[in-house]
Amino acid sequence: MLVVSYLAYRKRRQDVAQYCAWAMLAASFYSFGYACQIISTNLQQAKLWLNVQYIGIPFIVTFWLLLAIVYTGNRAYLKRWAAVLLFAIPVIILISQLTNDIHHLFYRELRFDPSDSNLSSVVITKGPLYWLHFGYFNVEAVVGMALYLRMYAKSIPIVRRQVVMLMVSGAAPWLLNMIYLAIFGRAEVDLTPFGFAISSFAYLWGIYRFNLLRLVPIAYQKVFETMQDGVVILDYDHNLSHVNEAARGMLRELRLWNGQTVSVHKVFASNPELLAKIAAGGADESRIAIRQGQELRQYQVRISTIYDQAGMEMGKLIIFSDVTQAVLYQEQLLANASQLEELNAFKDKLFAVVAHDIRDPLAMMVNLSEIIEEDFIEPGSEESHIFQKIGGQVRDTHLLVENLLDWVRSQRDKINFHPMVWELEPSIHQAAQTLKHHLERKRIRMSVSVQEGSEVYADKDMMELVLRNLMLNAIKYTGTGGWIQVEAADHGGHMIVSVKDSGAGVDSEVGKTLFHEVQPGSAPGTDGERGTGLGLYLCGKFVRLNGGDIGYTSVPGQGSTFYFTLPSTKTANVRQRTWKEIDAI
């Protein structure tokens, strides 16, 4: 009993553990005092040990009743005044027993008879206060047992085991005391302390086997009842054992169940798919549709087997999660994805039409305007001036369409990427040649200085687009009569290409996102030229895709230098970046 009291005291933060500890401590006083009373050799010793017994006897059942009240979830009824009233009679009993020599209301007679043949030589004649204590003790025991029986009927299996252990612990001393008083009358020995020994073993078994006092069962019950998922517990024969409120709300078949034994096959007779999964045995998780009235609900059903600590099957646990809304959202997302796929396919076709029916004619118009301007228009004439403006607009529009199509393809990861080793110098000169009319119109001097043998490892088409965009950007922001220098040289295994101009420079705020975001609208050039804000964004993306880096230096009012690096043939094995890596930079 002291061991149980100690184990319960270690968990004293829980009220049930405190009451259990006090009840076992009181029972220890009773048992120890009675053992010493039996071996007493005179009346004074017998009275002393009888007083020791009554330090605990009046309070044992009261503490046990408090344990039952809290354990069964009825703590709300245990007010302070109610606790005081519960202990009133035990205190009166203790005082009356200690002062019995004055009034003799507890024991009518108390004498020591060594010649008595019984195990104890103490002869006791009980008084009215003793029988008052006996009646109060039985009332408390009946109330406590009723609380446990009520909880047992409503509890889930894991809680029922603990309730049974507590009922056994309380019933053993109670029944043995009734046998001692009612059947045998004045027996040789009081059987009640032996009942408390049985209680102690029951408590120990419950603590180590069923985690008794470790978690208050009402907590298990609360979790079970307040779960949002529906929970159904079946016994070994597949009969309904317990159902929580969520399950009753989900499934119409469970709302009428009143707790009586009924087979799950009868309850779910209209759902053969669910019954098949239950009968299959083992763990299972799947989604099933169950019609509830006019509505078809979707449930994620998880079925698992319940085993005891010995590994024997005890029943099944079925958890229902209502996923109807999630399924509707999923179907809607799939429909939206299909619609988006159709829209993207339409967009791809649209841009294919743009590429074929707009870009190609524009390219022809660019070539035609250049031929007419060079071969059929007299330089310096009014017609020449008009054709220069027309040609400039056509070239700008053609470049806009090119950049727009490249940007769209880059967003869709549709641009073909074919890195190879190629000579840089011819491509730089070719890019400069395509912009000859822009240079002549603004009388800008362009010089090209490329290190001999400047081979790079990159996608040629992409890099030629980068060169054209950087050169065109320099022309755009360089005033009439200015200059542009294009240089390329090998530095430590990487080719550095730079385009330097004497233009207006770059604003520091704009420069922060120059290569990483599409500019909402680029500033007009020195001659009123307009842009899309796509050119430098594409340059940054294409350079990084080829394993290089891009940047610029600028002094407002004095000019800018845009530069980028590319792997040379010495570092041709450099790892190329993917589109996702580029977007993350």
Automatic annotation (TrEMBL):
Catalytic reaction equation(s): ATP + protein L-histidine = ADP + protein N-phospho-L-histidine
Pfam families per UniProt: HATPase_c, HisKA, HisKA_7TM, PAS_8
Membrane topology, as annotated: Multi-pass membrane protein
InterPro entries, alphabetized: BphY/WalK/GraS-like (IPR050351), HATPase_C_sf (IPR036890), HATPase_dom (IPR003594), His_kinase_dom (IPR005467), HisK_dim/P_dom (IPR003661), HisK_dim/P_sf (IPR036097), HisKA_7TM (IPR031621), PAS (IPR000014)
Domain Histidine kinase: 353-570
Entry EC number(s): 2.7.13.3
GO BP, one annotated term: osmosensory signaling via phosphorelay pathway
Top-rank lineage group of the source organism: Bacteria
A GO CC term attached to the entry: membrane
Transmembrane region(s): 20-40, 52-74, 81-99, 130-151, 163-185, 191-208
GO MF annotation list: ATP binding; phosphorelay response regulator activity; phosphorelay sensor kinase activity; protein kinase activator activity
Keyword tags: ATP-binding, Kinase, Membrane, Nucleotide-binding, Phosphoprotein, Transferase, Transmembrane, Transmembrane helix, Two-component regulatory system
Keyword Thylakoid set for record: no
Subcellular location: Membrane
Keyword Transport: no
Name this polypeptide is given: histidine kinase
UniProt source species: Cohnella lubricantis
